[in-house]
Amino acid sequence: MSKPSSSPTTATSRRAFLQGGGLLLGFALFGAGIKPVLAASTAQPVDGDVTAAFAPDAFIRIGTDGLITLILPNIEMGQGTHTGEATLIAEELEVGLDQVKAVDAPPNDKLYATAALGGQATGGSTSMRATWEPLRKAGATARMMLIAAAAAEWSVPAGECVARLGVVTHQPTGRQLAYGALADAAARQPVPSQVTLKDPKDFQLIGKSSRRLDTPGKVNGAVKYGIDIRVPDMKVATVAACPVLGGKLGDVDDRAARAVPGVRDIVRLDNAVAVIGDHFWAAKKGLEALDISWVDGANANLASANIMAALKAASERKKPIMARQEGDVDGRMKAAATKVEATYELPFLAHAPMEPINCVVHVRPDECEIWVGTQVPAIAQGLAAQVTGLPLDKVILHNQLIGGGFGRRLVAESVAQAAAIAKQVSYPVKVIWTREEDIQHDLYRPAYYDRISAGLGADGLPTVWVDHVAGGSVLGNYIPGGWPEDKLDDDAVEGAAKPPYDLPVIQVDWVREDPPVPITWWRGVGPTHNVFVVESFMDELAHAAGKDPVEYRRTLTRNQPRAAGVLELAAEKSGWSTPLAAGMGRGISLHDAFGSYMAAVLEISVSPAGEITLHRAVVAVDCGITINPNTVEAQIEGGLIFGLSAALYSGITFTDGRVDQSNFHDYRILRNNEAPKIEIYHVKSSESPGGIGETATVSAAPALANAIFAATGKRLRTLPFNRDALKTDGADKKSVSMIPPLAAPIAAALASVKPADTELEKL
Amino acid sequence: MIALNVNGEERNVDVPEDMPLLWVLRDVIGLTGTKFGCGIAQCGACTVQLDGRPVRSCVLPVASVGARKVTTIEAIGTTPAGKKIQDAWLDLEVIQCGYCQSGQIMSASALLDRNPAPSDRDIDAAMSGNICRCGTYTRIRAAIKQAAKA
Fold first, then answer.
1. ipTM
2. pLDDT reported for residue A733
3. Mean pLDDT, residues A677-685 taken together
4. Which residues are in the Aldehyde oxidase/xanthine dehydrogenase a/b hammerhead domain (chain A) (predicted)?
5. Which of A75, A81, A214, A218 is the best substitution to test chain B (most B C-beta atoms within 10 A)?
6. pTM of this prediction?
7. I need a surface site. Which of A477, A757, B20, B42 has the fewest CB within 10 A?
8. How many CB atoms lie within 10 A of CB A614?
C-alpha cells in the first residue's frame, strides 16, 4: 500500500522499454478508439513512485539492498490481483513471491492503463487477461538485464548464466551474484529488443496455488484500508445527500448540531450537507441534530413501478439498436412448429461492499492530498483537481487496500464530494458514509425488461432465437460526455449477443431507456443480467421440447467445444441424472463470459412455505491457463454467493424518488448458514487466461431459477425471486426469508451486557 | 472519563457515555482493526469480545462496558482459540477483501473458546451474524473445523 506520505519521490533510472507492446485484447468494454497501452514507457517520474537503483520499467524496482518492489497496475480489493500480477512478474524475473513487496501503482493513465477499460482501472475481470503478457515480458526483460550485468562482471557469455530465486549463477564456475549486488550494473545494461517468454511446461509459479500476499495482515487487524487512515489533526465527517435522487439542499438549521459535543463544522454542498467532528460519533450525532429541508426536484414522484412501466413501453414501442442479426428471422419464426415467448424483469442493485464509502482529503492552499481505496485512481485524481481547481500534479492520491469494490469504486463521485467538503476547511477530513447513505446513494446496476422468444422445429430444437433487451446504458452513464443514443452499448447485450450455442438464426437487439437514477458497473453487469434471461429461457425451451436440460444443451453445443467441456464435467460431477428426494431440484446454467466458460449445477429444496434451501453447488470452469488455482476457486465460491444473494434477496426500489432500502436488514446479503456447499472442477486448458472475478456471479441466478423450476414446476422470471409465489396451496406462513436471523452473538451480548440506553433495546 | 480495559491495557477515555465502543476503539484509541460495516448490529464487522463473549461494538455504548475486559482483533492472537483460528484462516486462504474478517475471526474464536468441537449447527448459530460480501462462508466453516482439530 502507498504510505501516507506527502513527499513524492523521483525515479532515478527509468528506462524505456516495451515500447509499442500494446495489448490486443479480444474484448473491448469501451469499444474501439481508446487504446492506451499498458506498460508504455516514460522518462517522466510519477508522483508517489518507488525509487531504486534498478528501475527498468514502471513495474519493477530492485535496490542495492536487494529489496524487490513490484508496482502493480491493478488494485487489490480481495480478488487476489496483487498475488496474481506479482506471480506473472516473479515467474519471469526468477524470484520467489516471498522475496517481493507488492505496492499499488500511483495514478498514471499512461503507465498503468488497462487497455480494455480505457484508463487506469481495475474491473471487468480484465486484470489478469490484460497483464498476462506485458507483466511476464517486464519480468523477463529485467531478468535478462540482470544476467547481462553479471556476465559482464565475470566476463563470460550471458548464455552460461542462469537466474533463480534472485541470484544469478555462472553455471561452469558456480560463481553467484544476488540481484541487489547487480542492481547498479543492470541499470546500465541496454534494454534487450527481444525477449522470449518461458514455455508453460517450465512454469515454477504460474499454475501453483501460491500463498496470497495480502492476507497475513488481515487476520490481526494490522492492514489499513482507506477507512483506517489517520493523519495528524484529522477530523471525521459524515454526510447526508438529498434523499430524493437528483434533489438539492435547501435550508439547514444547524443550531442544535453545533451544540453537540465534538462537532466542529457544518459544511453545505449543492446537494448534501456534512457535519465534521472530532470523531465519527460526534459527526453522526451532529448530522442527526440538523434540521434540513430538501429541494426534491424532478424525481419527487418517482416510483419503481413507473420505471418498469417505462422500460416495458420502450421495449414494445421504441426502435431497437441491432446487436446481431443472422439468417431469416421472420421467416423461421413463422415456420416454427412451436413458438415460445417469455418476459423477464431484473431490478436495480446496490453494491454494498463491506467497507463503507470513505475518503481522507487534505486541501492545502497549493495542493490536495487524498487517501482512498479506488478502482480508478487517475479518475479520482482528476475529479479532485476539478473540484479544488488545482493542477493535476498538485493532487497527490495514495491508493489504499479496498474492503470490497464490485464496481462501486469504479466511480469516484464520492472522492469529488469529499474534496468539496475538505476544501471548505483547513484541516484534513475523513469522510465516512453511513451504510444508509451507501445503500441510498449508490450508483445502481440498471433494471432491465427483456422479451425473448424462439421458434422450435419438429425435433424441439430452436430454429430461431430472438432476444429483445431493454435497459439503461451503463457506458452512457460512465463515460464523460455520454454515449451516442443510436450506438450499441456492448455491455447491454454482453452474454446475450453470443450465447455459446449453435443458433444459426438469431436476432439480439437493445432498446436504450436510461432511468432517472444513476447507474453503473456491478459485478458482472452485462452477463449477469443477460445470462439469467438466456439460460432461464434455454431451460424453458428444453422443457417445452420435453428434453432434459443438460441433454438439450449438449445437442446445441456440438460445435462449441469449450462450452461442451464444462457442461459435461458439471453434469458428471453433480450426478445430474441421479434421482433427488421430493421437494428438491437441480438446475444448470452454462455460459461464456469474460473469456472463461462455466457450467454450474445447483441442488436446492423448496419448502411448502416457499423457503429455498441451497444444498450444493457444482461448478465446472475452463478459464484457460490457471495462474493460481486457489484464487480461481475462491473467486468462484465468492462470486457464486454474491450472485445468489442478489437472486434471493437484492433489489433496490424507489418510492417518491427515495430508495426504500437502507441497510443490511432490508438489503439482505446471504449469510453463512444459508450458503451451499460448493465443489469446483477445472477443465485443463492451454488457452490464455480468462477472467474469473465475475464469472460465477453470472451462473448463480439462472442455475437457481432452473433448480426452482425443477423442484416446484414454477418458473420465476422476475428477480429477486418471490418466495410467496412458491408457497404450496394451504401453506399460510409468511415468508421469513427477508428477516435476518437474530444471531447468537447478539443474543449473547444482550444477555451479558446491561443495556445502558435505548440503543441496545433496538436489538 | 470512562475507564476501559482494552487488550489488557487500562485506558481512560474522555468521550460521551453513549458513544459506541466501536468509535472509541477506532477514533479515540486508534485500534482500527475493528471495522464499521452497518452501525445497527446487522453485519458483525465490528465484533469484539467482552470477557470472551462476542458483541457488536457498533451499538454497545462505551459506558456499559464497565469492568469487562475488551479484546479486539489486534490481540486475539494471544488467546489459544484466537491463534488457532488465525492459523486456519491463513492455511485455508479464507480471506478475500478481508474487511469483515476481523469480525469473523472474533466470532469464530469466541465459538471455539467455549466449544472446542463445534458442529455445523453450532457454526450456523455463531457465524450467521457476520456478513461476508466476498462470500468466503464455505472456507470460514472449513477453517473453524480445521482449527477445532489443531
1. 0.98
2. 53
3. 97
4. 220-298
5. A218
6. 0.92
7. A757
8. 22
